[in-house]
Amino acid sequence: MKSYIFQQFVFTIVIIYASTIDGVPIEEDLKSIFLRIYVGITIHEYIDCSLENASAITSRLNTSKPTVMYIHGFSENVEKKSVQTIVQAYLKRNDHNIIAVDYSKFANDSYVTVTRNAPRVANALTMILDKMAELDFDTEKLHVIGHSMGSQISGYIGRKVNFKIPRITGLDPAGPLYNFLQPHLSLFDARFVDIIHTDYGFYGIARITGTVDFFPNGGQRIQPGCPHHPKFYSKDDFCSHHRSWKFYAESLINESAFLGVQCSSLSHLASGKCNNNTQIIMGYATPSSAQGTVYLLTADQSPFGLKEQGLLT
User: Fold this and answer.
1) Catalytic-labelled residue, pool 148, 154, 240, 251
2) Which long-range contacts link 49-57 to residues 24+ away (Cβ below 8 Å)?
3) Which residue in 72, 96, 147, 241 is the catalytic one?
4) Can 199 be counted among the known catalytic residues?
5) Alpha-carbon distance 60 to 70, whole Å?
6) DSSP secondary-structure letter at 309?
7) What radius of gyration, in Å, describes the C-alpha atoms of the chain?
8) Cα separations in angstroms, 21 against 15, 63, 112
9) How do residues 205-241 score in pLDDT, each as one tens digit?
10) Is 184 an active-site residue?
């Protein structure tokens, strides 16, 4: 554990020196944030709403369905594969209101600047959620999901909103700066917080932070099927980090695909020390009673879920 913290510290320093620190955003920048609400059965059927009209947003939601709000990561937008993959999986289920947050004008700045502005992005989203709640939006049906920086923004929202969010799912929450200098997503930010770690200690946070923390394949790089010697900051370098949203998207289609077991380490899983412990599903169907640390194995390509075979080494 200490080695991961040290690695994250060194990586944080690299990020700081590699980033350009810009000025604080003006209010016009905050107005660039919008919500994409999917209103049909395909990913091409949607409306984009500003954060200025809560009634326009709530009027588009089916009150009989739960609502998922997905917040993308650093350097992304709602057109990126991570968002599209999650949205398409929810559309296939056809049982949720789907809202994708786009804060791309902030997300595509330098990492240090995005980190500094994350609370302001969260404040804007908090305000619209509070206004929606005043208009009878059912907050008990809200599930907030964030990948990387989106996970940390989710945490800020959970700490500031005027109601308790039932569930926040963190998909490999961003690590650099969040281990030492910034408040991070934690189990106190919603009634239930589930975390999927896939790049623990590098792009992902090097901390156990949720009500339940899942560690597929040990939770760290290199995830099975990812290149072993990627060029720093390349597409291949993010392979392990991106496994988190790929696993979650698959769990939306096959709820029992990822079966883990409460365990303290991958080596304990391999040695059979956790064989008699509680088994817990990872992903969409994770029960709200789940807690602790959970380990499992996955395949090296899609479909990744191994079900019971994921408990064997």
Assistant:
1) 148
2) 51/124, 51/125, 51/127, 51/128, 54/128, 54/131, 54/132, 54/134, 54/135, 55/135, 57/99, 57/128, 57/132
3) 241
4) no
5) 17
6) G
7) 19
8) 11, 43, 6
9) 999 999 999 999 999 999 999 999 999 989 999 999 9
10) no
Can you tell me the distance from the alpha carbon of 291 to that of 128, in angstroms, rounded to the nearest whole number? 31
Residue 241 annotated among the catalytic residues of the structure: yes
> Distance from first CA to last CA of the chain, Å, rounded?
22
CB 172 within 8 A of CB 151: yes
* 306 touches 231 (CB < 8 A): no
Return the structure tokens found at 259: 């079966």
Q: Where are the beta strands (DSSP E) in 25-66?
A: 34-38, 46-50
| 151-203 residue pLDDT tens | 999 999 999 999 999 999 999 999 999 998 899 999 999 999 999 999 999 99
Secondary structure of 193-250 in HEC code, one letter for each residue = EEEECCCECCCECCCCCCCEEEEECCCCCCCCCCCCCCCCCCCHHHHHHHHHHHHHHH
Which phi and psi (to 5°) does residue 140 adopt?
-70, -10
Structure tokens at 140: 């008990």
Inter-residue contact 96 to 5 (CB < 8 Å): no
- Whole-model pTM: value is 0.93
Amino acid found at 184 = H
Dmax (CA) of the chain: 56
Q: Residue type at 265? A: S
Residue from 102, 109, 172, 213 carrying the catalytic annotation: 172
* Nearest by Cα to 213 from 155, 280, 292: 292
Residue 265: C-alpha distances to residues 71, 189, 296, 300 (Å) = 30, 25, 10, 20
